[in-house]
Amino acid sequence: MSPSALVQKLWNYCNVLRDDGLSYGDYVEQLTFLLFLKMADERSRLFKTPPLIPKTIGWPTLLNLDGDDLETQYRHTLDELSKRQGMLGLIFRKAQNKIQDPAKLRRLIVDLIDKEEWSSLDADVKGDAYEGLLQKNAEDVKGGAGQYFTPRPLIKAIVDVMQPQPGQTICDPACGTGGFLLAAHDYIAKTPGLDAAQKRKLKRGTLFGFELVDGVTRLCAMNLLLHGIGGDSDEDLPVVTRDSLASEDSVKYDMVLANPPFGKKSSVTIVNEAGEQQRESLVINRQDFWATTSNKQLNFLQHIVTILKQHGRAAVVLPDNVLFEGGAGETIRRELLKQADVHTLLRLPTGIFYAQGVKANVLFFDRKPASETPWTKKLWIYDLRTNVHFTLKENTLARADLDDFVRRYHPKNRHERTEAERFKVFTYDELVKRDKANLDIFWLKDDALEESANLPDPEVIAAEIAADLEMALDQFAAIAEELKARR
């Protein structure tokens, strides 16, 4: 069965469950639990391996029950597995049954999951099918799942220019459902002449992901597992639930690929003396950071610098405000230009993210050892935004849309680049002389400003205006915070 047919088969049933108030996210989560139970059972039967899951809570116990007995057994199974180690404990951590109707739960188990021999399916088919489910989940924008999903054509293009190699360690400190980690895995897996030790290392000891939200870690773990990544013990976990920004990481990596969450402020909800809920900014205070701020992206950018090995390389998706924000933003940009080789910036088009109106970029840089002279000599900027408009439905971003960028990036030897209409180079001196070391640079004439017929769709304009206003409000909030601190 093809991945798309498998996705369609599983997805059709979601519409039935939605009538019971189950969201796309809840549905994919329940599928994750049941798929794992089914595959664990197949593995022990087909490959004669010791059972991963005790017989008392294994897949066959669910097949033989219905009604309240099925619901009780399923709840008991989830509870028992949540206490285990390794990928088991990771996937079932805090697991709950969200399907209230036992008849619908039985149909999902017997008619959908059990009808397929998942272990006999090719890893690409299983993996692509699950990716398809995650994409459909991300399309449910109202549910907010889109924030964890980076467009796969963009991820592929980034990995194609970064060219991860066998033996390198690759980290995503805000891994979402694992798109960057899987793309890096697939790129390395295609390296000609990989030996047995390199293949083992690729499955365990190459990819490292961190995710703040339990439910998303679960989706990522399942995604990786369906691609054959990760083992059965706590030592083999490729992804863990952890706040990357909370403390300094002693482990350093060869490469970081990341799209940190778009929310601009780190905050926590507290209850004040009057019993009302308030949100307070969480200012991240770390000795290894250049500046103290509550801006989440600026903190992730600083964190990524700290977890790279010397000469380690990074590609990070960042919103526009990181390029021009004053205060801590200026401090961080100036330090980054001095202490790292910030060599490439890709200005992304609008309409490619599930969070509407987002204006984002990909920043490429290499960490370098201490030096008296700045490491950044030239920053090459590729403008894929001016006069380029995509939408999530009719005109979606494809990998081919990034072909020119990948070619001009010149991954084999980026010192042999040449300028083009959309690709310009700026020296270190030019950059630091700009007001606040602003890296939000553009030079192409925007046709939409000249000709009203060229304007993008009204919903695109509205989303961009909303995003700009939100950014402006954040700027005012930051200024207010600074003024309050100076009193």
General description of the model:
The chain has 487 residues and is an alpha/beta fold. It has two domains: 130 residues, Up-down Bundle (Ferritin), CATH 1.20.1260; 262 residues, Rossmann fold, CATH 3.40.50.150. It is 44% helix and 14% strand. The chain contains 18 helices and eleven strands. The strands form two sheets. A nine-stranded mixed β-sheet has the order 3-2-1-4-7-9-8-10-11. A hairpin with a 5-residue loop joins strand 5 and strand 6. Helix 2 packs parallel to helix 11 and helix 7 runs antiparallel to helix 11. The longest helix has 29 residues. The chain is globular. About 3% of the residues have low confidence.
Provide a concise account of the structure shown:
With 487 residues, the protein is an alpha/beta fold.
Secondary structure layout plus pairing:
Elements: H1 3-18, H2 24-46, H3 59-63, H4 67-81, H5 86-92, H6 102-113, H7 123-139, H8 152-162, E1 170-172, H9 179-189, H10 196-203, E2 207-211, H11 214-226, E3 239-241, E4 253-258, E5 267-271, E6 277-281, H12 296-307, E7 308-319, H13 321-324, H14 328-339, E8 340-347, E9 360-367, E10 378-383, H15 403-409, E11 423-427, H16 428-433, H17 447-450, H18 458-486
Parallel strand pairs: 1-2, 1-4, 2-3, 4-7, 8-10
Antiparallel strand pairs: 5-6, 7-9, 8-9, 10-11
Helix pairs in contact: 1-6, 1-7, 2-11, 4-6, 5-11, 7-11, 8-9
